[in-house]
Design a protein that fits this description.
alpha/beta; Rossmann fold
Amino acid sequence: MVTNTNSAYCFIAFLFCISINGNIYSQFESSEKIQVFILAGQSNMDGRGDASKLTNDDVIGLSKAKENILFAYNGSQPAPLHVTQIKQDFIRKKFRVDSIFGPELFFGIEMSKQFPDKKFLFIKRSRGGTSLYGCWNPNWSIDKATHVNEQNKPKLFFEMLEFTDAILAEFDPKSYELAGMLWVQGESDSGRKLPSNSYEQNLTNLIQHTRKHYKTNDLPFLMLQVSRGKVADAMRSVSKNLPRVSFIAQSYSEDAFNFLPQYDYMWKGRPAGHYNYEGMKKIGVLFSKEFVKTYSK
């Protein structure tokens, strides 16, 4: 396995910490099965929403969601749903924020409103600047990773499975069920000929490999539209050709309900390309609406 040594060591250490604290959340019980969601992707799944912009209503909604939702993030142990304090200086300086959130926050707030008697577990593995052609490829190879200069980055698809498996191992298998997977990724594949041309097949492989690993052929897979080019077209095509796959379109018209605002300042002469508080909030809400409309029993 070719990977960044420090990153891999830290990730393994996280998994070890999880394993030695067996069943620390056994009190998280419900008469119904815990609904487990896997969240994965690059920086817009990681989330750059400015948590300082949360309104009083948002905070009240989050306080209620905390009672029913556990959130495990990039190797961390499950904890009540929360915003993230930024540890990396470059992210803090680039986005000028101290705490951030991703799609999980408002997806969780809305899901807890829709299903106040259910318990949820969100498991997220994300990393900025990573492609489906390289890091996230279920059919990873050194040639593919090198093509997108990711030969020294981790095999994120397999880390996602390992992390999810490690978290679920702390729960009674009869106490939970996989409810769905949320995907926000594709920016790193856009504009690159081979990665964008092969995105449809690679995304199909990712969905099928995940379903096979968890023996759930009908696992709902929800993805946010990325870009307006080949990657977006590939996403739309996969949603039509595979069952129980949802393509959540975004509009680039500011008057549209699914317009997703991004940071409007410039960084190194180019738009940041990341969703701000309002945009990230809308993403979480759109995921929730799609899941409730299409997949809720």
